[in-house]
Design a protein that fits this description.
Helix content: 25-40%
Radius of gyration: 21 Å
Length: about 220
Amino acid sequence: MTWRDRDGNTLTDYPRPSVAVDVAVLTVRERRLQVVVVPSERGPALPGTFLRPSETLADAADRALRTKADLTDLTFHQLRMFDGPDRDDRGWVLSMAHSAAIAARSLSPTTVSMPIDDSRPVSPMAFDHGDMVSEAVRDLRDRYAHEVDPALLTDAEFTLLELRELYEIVFDRPLPKDTFRRHVLGSLQGTGTTSTAGGGRPAELYRRASNPALPASAGSFLLR
């Protein structure tokens, strides 16, 4: 039996949008927050694709990363649906934006990325992908305000200076040394070793604690 609404219409009687996925992959390169981009007819774009029959959104996002950006086994999550009726000049297209973050050491040297200024890409992007990047940056900052380096953008062991410099890149502002130390130290574990990287005085090396959650006060400090 075919379902019909009160006006006698079936589902196929209504126009249907195409559904796409786009993935904003953030990284830190050249001491700046950047987003992975791929070429398109409309300029730099996020890795994306249209949803295929019998495919989940996660399947499509994974396929887009693999085929468009040569990225595999990347952890990502949904941000929100971008549903502006005129967002795509090819037709009615809804796109579920996804976000991911990856350390630069895990990227191929040929991977192209675009710097981000505050929360926007420095150059125009295709469609509304610039807005997706901004959404991904806000999401990343929220995650970093509640956990020590959740995307593992640093090495496994790091100095407090290296961690603070990463946070200054993510939040795009200088952070007071002593205040930052007070907020994060309880979520770190000392290694008992030191580093002389940079030629300065030896600095203690830390790693993320088994529970790297930051105190609520850290979130207030970082997101203000």
